[in-house]
Task: structure prediction
Amino acid sequence: MHPNLLTLPAFDLFGRSLGPFTLHTYGLVLAVAFLMGLWITSRQAKRSGLDANLVTDMAIWVLIAGLIGAKVLLVAVDWRLYTGTPRELLSIFQSGGVFYGGLLGGMLVAWWYARRHGLPGWATADALAPGVILGQAIGRLGCFAAGCCYGKPASVPWAVTFTDVNVRAVGTPMDTPLHPSQLYESILAFLLFFALLWLADRKRFAGQVVLSYAIGYSVIRFILEFWRGDPGRGSLFGGALSTSQVIAIVLVLGAVVFWPRLSRKERPAPAVA
Result:
């Protein structure tokens, strides 16, 4: 694909050359993903009767925490590589990291922010969820352009072959047909985004949208992990499951536990004779 969108010469104020300036496709797509996610979050907050400014500010902090969390989990699941070869740490700036690390980091910051500013937790999470999954859907297109999060070797007609030498920075196999796992996830994430928008106007209790997001994305990620070929995702239980698959199972179980508890809170109290 095209990891580098364009390269231009750069100069300082005195006309001295600063070397080439490269605009990375992943960075540009990620910026678009953030902006679209913030716009949808603000829109959903207004529709829910929440303070749109507070929720948008929260979303910005959540995005920052998500970026940091994704990189931290990326290093954690493959710490032997990074401690053995410290120079590999530079490669984390050219990949998205492990999304679940970003999700967990974002959840912690969202919980702290909501408590500090008195926002209703579950209703606010419902407003955030569609923006998060839209950001993921767009962001995976950036992953596809950069070559990270690549799939296993494939013989299917829609297999993709990376030929740009710049994809070597994230370890992507070149000249090898691979499953376009990034596009698989992007397409499914877009479908989940529209499903969450539809549900947001029809939900029966606060928290239903974010719990549906947790279940829907976890199922998507659990299945797609079988087509992922990048090694830096960690493995558990003797390699039977990846770190992301185990986290997906935990999230689904957590959502199943909270679902009936939250739905009961919205039921009207029985009439007193």
Observations:
- The CA atoms of residues 202 and 242 lie 35 Å apart.
- Strands lie at 4-11, 17-24, 235-236, 241-242.
- Residues 52-77 form the longest helix (26 residues).
- The first strand starts at residue 4 and ends at 11.
